Automatic annotation (TrEMBL):
Name of the protein: Adenylate cyclase
PROSITE patterns: GUANYLATE_CYCLASE_2, TPR
Molecular function GO terms recorded: adenylate cyclase activity
InterPro entries from the UniProt entry: A/G_cyclase, Adenylyl/Guanylyl_Cyclase_3/4, Nucleotide_cyclase, TPR-like_helical_dom_sf, TPR_rpt
Origin species: Neomesorhizobium albiziae
All copies of domain Guanylate cyclase, residue ranges: 7-122
GO terms for biological process, alphabetical: cAMP biosynthetic process; intracellular signal transduction
Residue stretches of each TPR repeat: 381-414, 461-494, 495-528
Highest taxon of the lineage: Bacteria
PANTHER family, alphabetized: ADENYLATE CYCLASE, TERMINAL-DIFFERENTIATION SPECIFIC-RELATED, PH-SENSITIVE ADENYLATE CYCLASE RV1264
């Protein structure tokens, strides 16, 4: 976990509950406007990073305490001017606390006393005021022409020592510091035509008539205003629900509600639904509904908030026609927490009704299904889903697995939780993450969990996708294609299902169709996670679309710098584009991260590929600079051990030696083809056989349970001169001597 010094600014809205009770919709709209017009642009102007919005406030990190105070002064003065013409009971006032100190950074969020003190300081600020800790005050003193009042030392919650507090006067000196607002252009994909506003004419024309007739036909709005063409059916983005509970412990509930609505709406073939990652990617930008719709290329947007107090739940939902800015339907639900599934059902049915969607019988049955009757199990499931699936992040996998298992312990019939375990297990198996399970165990868990999920819910798309990936690696290509097809049939808006379907098509030689399915997946998730960009890049690479594959693989490499496949496929793609310089650089970095990478290893790893595709990939890696054997070893034919002499080395003997990387090992062989390998970190048993001049080994649970073969040479190298032999295999380069048992 990274640690660093930073200036931390925290603010919240004074009287939030009162304002929400009086005018919930107006309060939320004003807060969003403040985010869009003040908080976001001013934070960018003063180089602040908005860590998160908290429903009625925010947490922002600055590298400079001067910048943090300038931001605070700009913010409060702007709001002061706005409130001067608003009735006192309707004003939105914020309290700001600023502290400097050591913080810990984990997955974009920040923690530690440096953060806690800032959060507590805001509680001691006046409405519309700014409070500083003594450490922040000492760093700002003499650098800005501002006036301060000493507030004294105060005991704050959960902080051991009293904190000295200073308050900033918002007087003429503060006004003199104000600067014109400098807005940065919103980010966009290459080639996007930015959409700054919906013209007044479009509002008038697209008003009442289109809402009540065919609202998904945007005849009055020029298509070029959107980042993507609007689909030929109603399209919707479900924005992340805002947790307004003043309790971050409920964040996962708001996230889970968003996820569930996306998942359920995605089952409707008559809708086009944007995937979760793309909507969550816009969570901290606080742009307008129209901007979101333009960014994602959708006609309708669903937004809402959630507040939980013990067993009570308040959910506000608003379905907006982004072309007109008008609300098609809005509702407030005051229910018991136990009614959350009933609320979800009602929201979905109201959306379907508002957009005049016709459901098939299968869709009606799927939407009527309740995932679990156990709310505690559901809570653990939501926590697991919030963890997400970060490529090769073992710690994330472990946390998610723990939550899924707790959900299953509470409700063994919870199909989605079984499917979640299956999804992680198949990644562990395919990528040989032995830190969690051995390959054999992961494969069995994936099959068992996916099978159990489908037994409980035959329409579980994630389980069908897992089954498809297992069948693909097992060489059952037709079955894999069938399973992947079922996944996209039952979940026609699932970008992950489409992405994996595209990969299976590419690996079964159906390249043109694979490209089309990648395009569908990317349209459903226009701002996908890095792991999905990697998947799409690999699929396009296998489809020989390297000009499109390379930018995706480059993004995956930058976002997942230690992920082996990102470097591996990018090196090969560069080589096939005749970009020798970049191919060589990527291969060098691959070998720096994974020094024993070699073509023989990849040949075994991808033995389930079609021979044409496997040779294409190995040739690309060879051209990039990857060698046949680990560390570029090339044995001399005159030194090679074969025949009876080779058999004698693995019959009733013990090898004692060390790997190229220095790891000491012992390996025992009996006379019946059994072997046991031991090192400081590994203790495994397996089978061994001699095939002509090769030693072939299989260790259960390792390297996808493959039997892999290598060679033994007399050690005539300049390395490890105290050892008599060299054993080169796809997995390792070892130097050893032999002693009889």
């Amino acid at each position: 976990m990274e640690r660093r010094l930073a200036a931390v600014l925290a603010f919240d809205m004074e009287g939030y509950s009162r304002l929400m009770g009086a005018d919930e919709r107006g309060t939320l709209a004003a807060f969003r406007r403040h985010c869009n017009d003040i908080f976001n642009p001013r934070a960018a102007q003063y180089h602040g990073r908005i860590v998160k919005f908290t429903g009625d406030g925010a947490l922002i990190e600055f590298a400079s305490v001067v910048d943090s105070v300038c931001f605070a002064v700009e913010m409060q003065c702007a709001l002061q001017a706005e409130n001067s013409v608003i009735a006192p009971e309707s004003r939105l006032c914020y309290r700001i606390g600023i502290n400097t100190g050591d913080i810990m950074v984990d997955d974009g969020d920040i923690y530690g006393d440096g953060v806690n003190v800032a959060a507590r300081l805001q509680e001691h600020a006046d409405p519309g005021g700014i409070s500083l800790s003594e450490t922040a005050f000492n760093q700002i003193r003499g650098k800005l022409d501002l006036s301060f009042d000493y507030y004294g030392k105060r005991q704050v919650k959960n902080i051991g020592e009293p904190v000295a507090i200073y308050k900033v006067r918002l007087d003429d000196k503060a006004q003199a510091l104000l600067t014109p607002l400098v807005r940065k252009a919103p980010w966009a994909y290459p080639g996007r035509l930015r959409w700054y506003a919906v013209a007044a004419a479009a509002v008038l024309i697209a008003g009442a008539a289109l809402i009540w007739m065919r609202p998904w036909e945007p005849a009055s709005l020029a298509p070029e205003r959107f980042a993507y063409p609007l689909p030929d059916k109603p399209s919707i983005a479900v924005l992340p629900f805002i947790n307004v509970s003043n309790d971050t412990e409920q964040d996962h509930l708001a996230t889970g509600l968003t996820d569930d609505l996306i998942t359920e709406l995605s089952k409707v073939s008559g809708l086009f639904v944007i995937a979760r990652h793309s909507v969550f990617a816009l969570r901290t930008t606080s742009v307008s509904v129209q901007d979101v719709a333009a960014e994602l290329g959708v006609h309708f947007v669903l937004e809402g908030s959630l507040q939980r107090t013990e067993s009570k739940l308040r959910i506000n939902v608003n379905l907006i026609d982004a072309l007109t800015g008008l609300s098609l339907w809005a509702e407030r639900y005051d229910r018991e927490y136990s009614d959350i599934f009933a609320v979800q059902d009602d929201v979905i049915s109201k959306i379907i009704s508002a957009l005049a969607i016709k459901l098939t019988k299968g869709e009606r049955d799927q939407l009527a299904r309740i995932p679990t009757d156990n709310l505690e199990a559901y809570d653990y499931y939501l926590r697991a889903e919030k963890e997400g699936f970060l490529y090769s992040d073992v710690d994330t996998y472990r946390r998610a697995l723990s939550f899924y298992q707790k959900a299953i312990d509470l409700d063994p019939d919870f199909a989605e939780a079984h499917a979640g375990i299956a999804r992680i297990a198949v990644d562990v198996w395919r990528n040989d993450y032995n830190l969690i399970w051995s390959a054999a165990v992961a494969r069995k868990i994936a099959y068992d969990a996916a099978g159990q999920a489908l037994k409980l819910d035959s329409g579980n798309a994630r389980a069908h996708t897992v089954l498809a990936l297992l069948q693909l690696v097992d060489g059952r290509r037709e079955e894999a294609t069938d399973s992947a097809t079922r996944a996209i049939t039952v979940q026609p808006n699932d970008s992950e299902a489409f992405g994996n379907f595209a990969l299976i098509l590419a690996q079964t030689g159906q390249r043109e169709q694979a490209i089309g399915e990648v395009d569908k997946a990317m349209r459903l998730d226009p701002a996908p996670p890095m792991s999905f960009r990697l998947l799409a890049g690999i699929t396009l690479y296998l489809s020989r679309e390297n000009d499109r594959a390379v930018p995706l693989l480059e993004a995956a490499r930058d976002g997942l710098p230690n992920a082996e496949p990102a470097r591996e496929y990018l090196a090969a793609a560069y080589a096939h584009r005749d970009d020798e310089q970049h191919a060589s650089q990527e291969a060098a970095k691959l070998l720096e991260l994974f020094p024993d990478s070699n073509l023989t290893y990849y040949g075994y790893l991808y033995d389930y590929w079609r021979e044409e595709d496997r040779n294409y990939h190995l040739e690309g890696l060879r051209r990039a600079g990857i060698t046949d054997w680990p560390f570029g070893f090339e044995g001399k034919e005159a030194d090679q051990i074969a025949g009876d002499e080779l058999r004698a080395l693995v019959g009733g003997t013990t090898w004692s030696g060390r790997h190229k990387n220095g790891t000491e090992f012992m390996q025992y062989f009996d006379n019946a083809g059994h072997t046991a390998y031991r090192s400081a970190n590994t203790n495994v048993t397996g089978m061994v056989e001699v095939d002509a001049n090769r030693i072939c080994e299989k260790f259960e649970g390792y390297f996808l349970d493959r039997m892999t073969c290598g060679y033994v040479y007399r050690n005539t190298t300049d390395e490890a001169r105290d050892k008599d032999y060299v054993h080169v295999s796809p997995q390792a380069l070892k130097f050893f001597s032999v002693t009889p048992q």
